[in-house]
Structures are given as structure tokens and as C-alpha cells.
Design a protein that fits this description.
alpha+beta, Chloramphenicol Acetyltransferase, 8 strands, 19% strand
Length: 225
Amino acid sequence: VADLPAAALDRLSSAARAAKATWAELVVAATAGHLHRITGADDVVLGLPLTNRRGPAALRTPAMTVNVLPLRIAVRPADTAAELLRRVVLEIREVRRHQRYPQADLRRDLALETAATPLTGPLVNVKPFDGALDFARATGTVRNLAAGPVEGLAVGAAPGPDGGLRLTVDADPAAYGPADLAAHQDTWLRYLDGLAELLLTDPRRPIGTLDLLTDDAVHEATSGR
């Protein structure tokens, strides 16, 4: 878990607005770009949870309706941050049109052999709404007690305490040890920060030039040579 201060969220929002996007879409873009960097894949498939609700009545009705659909993002080292972010915005818009397409039906239509066959890569769960509770001036605090089992890797983002942003990384413990998970979180956060910096200060610089490691980490990795 990483809690970013309100100033950091404001910076991400400003960076996203430079490409006519939101901080939530910037987080998704950073997740796709980071996965591209660590795997070398030019086409990244993320799992995108969608509310599967349409209209005010559906939004107000308590029920478990979330559907997770594949979000395919093409990522190229020569892309600018704005190009990647804009691609993410358009792909999310397209996937939302199909949010009522049950994942079970999608698996069947794709002729996937078993339920264990992966449909997507890492899950990216962004909740851009305020979770504060107010019952006639009696306030409540929402605490996530358990996220449930994770297949592979899942990252999340939601408004945090004091107007900041809470970022989370969860993983299947059989696939990722504590050190691996911590390293993934560090490089993911560094990529997110770097992507925002490109949008704000160097919009023509390609995303392939972003550094995932700090100078200290590079020194540690090369000091034995």
C-alpha cells in the first residue's frame, strides 16, 4: 500500500488533463506501460472491472454486479505519454460498451478450455469516487478488510485519506514473494511518476526512455562487476 498526499494526486490530475484524460485513466496507462517494460510485450491485456450498471436506478441498487473484461492496450517504446494515454482512454470507452457481456459467456465464445485459462493479465481496479460516508452529519470510514484471492497480480487506486490517493498492489503468494511484490510496486510507482513528468514537462519524449530504477538501485545492481 502506498498513500500519496493530496499534492501528488493534484499533480497526476494536472498531468492527465494535459492529454484530456483523468488521473484514473493515467493510472491504467501507467500500469499498461509498466507491464510492457517489464515483459517486453507490445500488446498488453489488463483486466478491467466495470460496474455493469446503467442508469440512476441501477447505480443506487445494492447488488454485486461487477464484471471484469479484457482491456487490450498497444504499447510502443516510441509512443509519447500523451499517445499512450489517449489510446487507453479510447480503449476503455470501447470496452465500457460491452460491460454487460458476462465473462463466462466471453470465455465460452472464445472456446477457452477451462475456467483456469487466463482471460486477462493483471487486474487494474480504479475507483475514482469518494468513499466517504455521511449519515446526517455522523461520518463513517470505509476500511477494506479483505480483497479476496488474486489470480496473478492486481493493482488498485482510490481516493485516500486527507484528499490523497491510495495505491495498492496484491498478488498470488504462490507466484510472488514479498520482495518481488515490493519491487514491482516500487517500479510501478516510479513509472507512474515518470509518465506524469513527461506529460507535464517533456511531452515529446518517448516513454521508452523512462527509468524504472533509481540511481542507487542501478549502483547496487552493477557494483559487483
